[in-house]
Amino acid sequence: MMDMWFDIIEGSKTLLELDDARIKIIGKNGELSKEFANLGKLPNAEKKAFATKLNSQKAEITTALNNKKILLEDEKLKQDLLDDSIDVTLFSKYKQAGSLHPIMETMDYIIEYFASLNFDVKYGPLAEDDFHNFEALNLSKHHPARDMQDTFYFKDSHLLRTHTSPVQIRTMLKESFPIKMISPGAVFRRDLDLTHTPMFHQVEALVVDKKDVVSFANLKDILTDFLKYTFGDIDVRFRSSFFPFTEPSAEVDISCIFCEAKGCRVCSHTGWLEVLGSGVVDDSVFKAVGYTDCSGYAFGLGVERFAMLLYKIPDLRLMYEGDLRLLRQFR
Ligand code: PHE
After folding, report:
1. Mean pLDDT calculated for residue range 210-224
2. Closest ligand 1 atom to the C-alpha of 163?
3. Which of 4, 61, 131, 183 is the most interior residue, by most CB within 10 Å?
4. Range of the domain at 222
5. Are residues 77 and 108 in the same domain?
């Protein structure tokens, strides 16, 4: 009998089969349990020996059942893990395409526009030194114009660049003119209110060639073309201004695209929106990089401002909140 029971236990292929075997052998009405019922019929002298034998058989069967159970549970766990394993190389049915952020979308647009006019695209470090960010751009240590650009300083006299103009200094120090470049990227200023964030993006441009080859007239042309191409049927106006690194300097306005220059909240009822800083490169800049007998122009624009105008996004804060309701509109 015992041999047959061990065979049944060993032959169980699943936990369910094993449980059936347990019921069949040592369950309430199991075959071994029935033998216990026979105890009563035996003469007293044989009872003890028979009971001892049955109990040790039951113990052996129980041990065999438990060992087999551990084995089958282990196999089942391995099989479950195999069945549940995820093939990460499979293509998902639910591919969700993301989208470029409107700031990057705008930046790419501006880069592509000027790249198509043969401007080189140059990048530089975000952590700059005083020379490249200020000194070489005619902003000496105590120049009052440094107040225009509240700066984040590191302990070791490095700083977070306040504009992308230092990339132009780096380029001029490395290469000789003619230079025709734009420098896109993030810039940092200690500013935070409704219309300013501590980090924002710029695209600045620099064109340098032999003396009198490039002029303010070229600057006006290229910017007027760019702004009309970008915003459509608008007026462009150059307003005299000041930057330490350009002379003469001009801020550039476009007629308000929200009210068609009639005057609204966005343009502060002036009919004009300021979009660019520009000018003819000051000689002191050329001196700082060792250029002589040349002339050039430069301009710089804020990418966030362009994005807000292009997509009519009314509030700068929306740009940085990562709200999917806004971002999904740019798929
Ligand atoms: N560097 C200036 C700024 O960040 C922008 C600018 C560039 C102005 C070139 C004039 C010419 O404010």
Report:
1. 95
2. 4
3. 183
4. 102-330
5. no
